[in-house]
Amino acid sequence: MYFKAMSAKYLLGATLGLAVSGLSAEEQVSSQILQATPNKCVALNQGRTCYADVKFKVNTPAVGDYCIRQSQSKKILQCWANTRAFVFTLNFGSAESLSYELISQVDRDVLAVTTIEVNWVHKVQVKKRRWRLF
């Protein structure tokens, strides 16, 4: 009886934990399949290209053939055959945030998506110039 009450309390806590975190269960599973570190890149000035070595860690639920591709251009970065977990290092360089997808090589289904956000320290400000004649 104590075990049932304890497990019910644990399930309720886990459910509340998911609700408080702001991510749905599907998004949390997706984020566990494909992780990018670091997932933020900081450039000095707005509009400048940000460079970072980003490490993608992939841990899929089943053995299969998988690829990592850039979401917008659909350019495939690298593929792996007959594997479940792998690590890929990308030399990231971009002035804007980019998303990357883990896809199944066989049926091209998107299994997970992660985004590398580009931020900057200084925002470009337009200076008003006032001309004076005297």
Kindly list the characteristics that best describe this protein.
about 130 residues, alpha+beta, 2 helices, 6 strands, about 50% strand, disordered N terminus
Task: Describe this protein's structure.
- The chain has 134 residues and is an alpha+beta fold.
- Helices cover 22% and strands 52% of the residues.
- It contains two helices and six strands; from the N terminus they run H-H-E-E-E-E-E-E.
- Strands 1, 2, 3, 4, 5 and 6 form a six-stranded mixed beta sheet that branches.
- The N and C termini lie far apart (91 Å).
How many β-strand stretches?
Answer: 6
* Low-confidence runs of at least 5 consecutive residues: 1-28
Cα distance spanning the termini: 91 Å
In helices, the fraction of residues equals 10-25%
